[in-house]
Amino acid sequence: MKVLGPEALARPLEAGTVIVGSGAGGAVVAAELAEAGEDVLVLEEGDHHPPEALAAMSPAESLRRVWRDGGTALAVGLGDTPHIAVQLGRAVGGSSILTGGVCFRIPEAVLAEWRERHGLADYTPEGLEPFYRSVEEAIHVEEVPEAARSRSTALFAEGARALGYALKPIRRNTLGCEGRGLCNFGCPHQAKRSVDLTYLPRAVAAGARIVSGARVDRVELRHGRARGVVGRTAAGRRFRVRAGRVVVAAGAWHTPLLLRRSGIGRRSGQVGRNMTLHPAFRVSGLFEERVDGWKGALQSAFADAFEDEGITLVSFFVPPSVLVSTIPGAGPRFVEEARRAGHLAVFGGILHDEGGGRVRRGPGREPLVTYRMARRDRAAVPRLLRLLAETWFAAGARRVYLPVAGLDPVDADAFARLDLESVPARKLECTSQHPLGTARMGADPESAVVDPDGRSWEVPNLYVADGSVLPTSLGVNPQLAIMTVAARIAWRMVGKA
Ligand SMILES: Cc1cc2nc3c(=O)[nH]c(=O)nc-3n(C[C@H](O)[C@H](O)[C@H](O)COP(=O)(O)OP(=O)(O)OC[C@H]3O[C@@H](n4cnc5c(N)ncnc54)[C@H](O)[C@@H]3O)c2cc1C
Ligand code: SF4
From 227's CA, which of 53, 88, 422, 461 has a CA 20 to 30 Å away? Predict the structure, then answer.
């Protein structure tokens, strides 16, 4: 796939549609518009890493070069809320390159809420079916067979069975996955069908241009319409692109910054608000047997048995080097613990959160993001940790490692004595890979930033097509939802739906 470098912007460019961001949302729109015969230009802040370059990177190099800020973005917890480490991609292909490949359709209860509370009348399972089908075919969504599960996941399944709940197979966008557990650093085998291998090559084949190393700072407006964008290359050189239509797809972390800087979204006052994160926690279990959990599909099973409590349990694993870096302690004790890494099994859980995140302009280039956990979500944290730990003990774990700063691994007796409700929020180690909702869509221009077709309520030739338009969290991983909504937005733009 041919990707242009920032030098392509030395002269002002023109395009029918300029798309800001080449991740899950932007890539889908680029391919759909280009294949409909439109003149498309994609501007991406990050670099282009072709598949062979990604395959040659160590996890540490990938963190430095593909992850935004080396994986250190932060949502600052307000009140009784943990600080949340947020991971994002910054590359041609966006965060899509870094996913574990997990694909979920939008749960019906979530769609019902979108219809009832946000006026998204056409967002029904039947209404979305053509878009799901088109995306699922394009990125090859398939069920992970039980045989591909890692020993870590198989052990968790045993524990779940003993406690009376079941794991279900996950679907992933893979083709020929050999189960190497490196998905979050870019699949070395091109087995994960991320957008850099699917939608973006399709867009380029249909005539779209993609420029890497191009950060857009502002949408230029004239007489209430967008007429293009301005920005800077990584080397600091300013550029300008004129376009008949602008699609903002910079992800829920950055899209609101760009809209705000451009003076868009004042009417609803909702730009940058309503951010949900799916706060995530993981608990490891230490087993007598060797687990080597990195062998097998990185993510292969989930449990929705606790959906009513806003909790989804999801399997995952990380390469050994990353796993060792999460082990507590220092000096000889650390060495001793690290030697046991092959005996650790890991499982995670996410909260179907209500959203208390807010994106504001920060002192530098990156936004200042705060997050206040809803009372219900905060109360679910000890329950989530207990579920994970008890499942490990039911599977035969000797000890569990809880995501609580400064807490040593505990055996079943010590765990039973722990008062998890009293652990201060600041001690909880919480992560997120799923920011959503900061430019939400809806039928009411007074409470939504874009309409149900992704079109700005204020600027008729400006669209948003990324995670920021999803009006609520999903309780499940969002990439398929984002791509499906982006496909719908694109089809409506070109009159295909
Ligand atoms: C480690 C990790 C694992 C994940 N695993 C899963 C999973 O298994 N399943 C799942 O469903 N989801 C997963 N996700 C989440 C999923 O990747 C995201 O929800 C999805 O990619 C978001 O799509 P998006 O289009 O909103 O943003 P992104 O895909 O993040 O794309 C936004 C792009 O815009 C670019 N950009 C930002 N600002 C500008 C600017 N001003 N100018 C130009 N370009 C800009 C960014 O560099 C980025 O490339 C994971 C995410 C991460 C980080
Ligand atoms: S488990 Fe390995 S082969 Fe499969 S998609 Fe992930 S990195 Fe690629």
Answer: 88
- Whether 235 is in a domain gets the answer yes
- Residue with the smallest CA separation from ligand 2 atom 1 is 179
Indicate the range of 19-33, 315-329, 433-447 predicted with least confidence. Answer: 315-329
Q: Catalytic: 223?
A: no
pLDDT, greater one: 400 or 496: 400
List residues near ligand 2 (CB under 6 A): 101, 174, 177-183, 187, 189, 191-192, 297-298
Residues 389 and 426 in one domain: yes
Considering every ligand atom shown, identify the ligand nearest to the alpha carbon of residue 101 and give its number.
1
Instruction: Give yes or no for a contact between 253 and 370, defined as CB atoms under 8 angstroms apart.
Output: no
Is 369 near ligand 1, meaning CB less than 6 Å away?
no
Range of the structural domain that residue 32 is part of: 6-58+90-141+188-272+436-493
**Same domain flag for 307 and 225:** no
Query: Does the structure show a pLDDT above 90 at 497?
Result: no
Residue 95 lies in a domain: yes
Q: Say what the pLDDT of residue 180 is.
A: 67
